[in-house]
Amino acid sequence: MIEKRLKYYLILPAFIIFLSLAIYPLFFALRGSFYIWRYGMPAQFVGLKNYIDLFKSSFAWNALQNTIIYVILAVFLELIIGLVLAVLMNRELGFFRPVVRTALTIPMFVSPIVVGIIWRMIYNPHYGLFNWLLGTQGFAPTGNEYALFFVVLADVWQWTPFMYVIILAALQSIPPEILEAGEIDGTTGWQKFIHITLPSISYAIIIALTLRFMDATKALDLIYTLTYGGPGGGTETIGFLIFRTAFNDLNIGSATSFALIFTIVMGILITRFLGWLNRRFEIV
Amino acid sequence: MKRIIVLSLIVVSVLLIAIVPTFAAEKRFDGVTLKVFANSHDPMLKAVKWSVPVVKEKFGIDILMDEAPYGTQFDKAMSAFVAHTGQYDVIVGAHQWTGAWADGGYVIPLDDFIKNDPEFDPSIYVEKAYQINSEWKGKQYALPFNMEGRLMFYRKDIFEKEGFKVPTNREEWLNIVQSINNNPEYKEKGIWGAVYMYATEQGISYPFETYFQMFDWNSIKTENGFWDENFQICIDKPKMVEAFQYWQDRLKDMPPGVESYNLPEAYQFYIDGKAAMTEVWPLTLYGMLLDPANADLRAKTGTADIAIGYPMSGGWGIFICADSKIQEAAWEYIKFMTTAENDLFFFKEFGKGPSAKATYTDDSLKETYGDWLKGQSEAISKAVSYGKIATMSELYGGNFAVITNQIMTGKLPAEEGVDKLIEELKGILERAGYPQK
């Protein structure tokens, strides 16, 4: 009898922690989303008003559009550049290989807040490296309608190494016999890459893509220091909007409803994305 | 024998060292620990840090310090207040946070302390500094700590050479800006007529500055021209549209890229000698000019009243938190930190914005700060406040500020933008507890 119950006793501490740190806050947040709940003011029940306001808010739609552009562009560019770098670094480069390999990972270890400050200097219209490279004077990459693309560029600089490291590790785990067998069968370099290398590392690519996808959708810290969502909300993502609503406006009720809807939408998107990958490549 | 004498002397010394403190006068707040939440702005932070050993020596109070920059201090304090952690006894805060803290009951009115303390004399402060930092709904919630009002900095050498007079209205100001911008000599040197901040964090893009700088402030007669004394919206829509259109048009007179300029970029632009005029928070820019590396530019720089409208005030006060169990000690501390003597000392040593009248007239400062201090005094006496309602943070950092930035940078037509701003303001006032009729 005791043995039968033992398993329940053993999972009880973990269950209590899970209940108090995940389930309870989730329901607390859900309840809060039905209130006008502002720090320092009495909460007022408003039903679905926060949700209706969210769907009517031009700021929310603008943030959603920016987030989609940001995520697709950043993750796609990071994947392509990371893949190219990994393939290049997988070759024999003699003495330089360890040095270059290590150097390529450095941006990933810099805090996003610091990355934002560095890129703010790089983009300075009068003293920045960016204008110097272009040979221009007074061009403000983050001061116009294309600001979001320049924020993406900073994100790509920081997170391409993440893709590169994971893909490089996967490339090194491909058994050389498979590649040799391909060569014996007379495949060209490109055919070998498309039909042997790429399928062999696809599981790593999917993992890297999923992790970066989830991370990029919550982009906040880089935007906070680089543009603060400006100009005119041009770089405001969902993550930034939730942050602004909660910690600048102190409208916890609205921010909670934003966050819940965002979590549900992202959950659906990621599930469908993984499902599609599974059907397409049969690897997940 | 010698050894015995030396040994005896050591023993006697040790005994004396041990005994003497017991005879030392007991201090009023011995054993009390005061938790102070300071702002990371360098001059204010240095002043609070300086106070740690001094207050221990004077009152016996131990100070436990925390600090945060402007961008995060408000919500960090709010989190502590809402959770009633009792984390802070005293807090250095911006005047625009007063309503959120006072209406929530998180800071206490100081009126009883003021009334019952014969040592305290509010007449030592500049009246505007005392009122802005922080009088709210007829009660005093803080003592003024750091005060500054927007000033115009201009290049005396350029003005003298070109025969310009310091502008006193927007037409004169614009004439000078365009004359410099169109002058091939300055063009070649990369010098612009003026530099302003058009980016989102702070500056001209903020509605307050834009709107205020268009009219005679006395005609509005309310705190900030957005709402009246009953907290009903009183925006002068045509004036506001005109203000925004004016600043939208001025983008073409500004250095390219100014849409991404926040405070640091604008300060640096002037320090690098690339602008003939700028209007900024004066303490930081003047601090930069005091750097020996900028001595040449400092000699060429003059300060004056801002050319358009009324200057904004940047005011910081010291509040006592309602959760504090040692409010007597807290009062003693904030009183000490804002005395006329310390105000002068903090300005001289750390560059903190003076709040006491005596600092502005102190003879020892005339040589180094002469014109600038006079200009500051005048700017502060006319300064207007952002406002202090509980939802102020939505006004200067929420949708309201985003819409303003959209208008300023030409993404939104002024007329349509102002309608959106009025709609947004309705919500802000209602959330602060002031239903709109």
TrEMBL record, chain A:
Residues 64-271 form the ABC transmembrane type-1 domain. It comes from the Bacteria. It is found in: Cell membrane. Its main location: membrane. GO terms for biological process: transmembrane transport. This is Trehalose transport system permease protein SugA. The keyword Protease does not apply. The keyword Membrane applies. The chain crosses the membrane at residues 9-30, 68-88, 100-122, 146-171, 258-277. One of its GO terms (cellular component) is plasma membrane. Keywords: Cell membrane, Membrane, Transmembrane, Transmembrane helix, Transport. PANTHER family: BLR7065 PROTEIN (PTHR43005), SPERMIDINE_PUTRESCINE TRANSPORT SYSTEM PERMEASE PROTEIN (PTHR43005:SF1). Belongs to the binding-protein-dependent transport system permease family. It is a multi-pass membrane protein. CDD domains: TM_PBP2. Signal peptide: none annotated.
TrEMBL record, chain B:
Belongs to the bacterial solute-binding protein 1 family. It comes from Candidatus Atribacter allofermentans. Its main location: periplasm. It is found in: Periplasm. Pfam families: SBP_bac_1. GO terms for cellular component: periplasmic space. Keywords: Signal, Transport. The keyword Signal applies. This is Putative ABC transporter-binding protein.
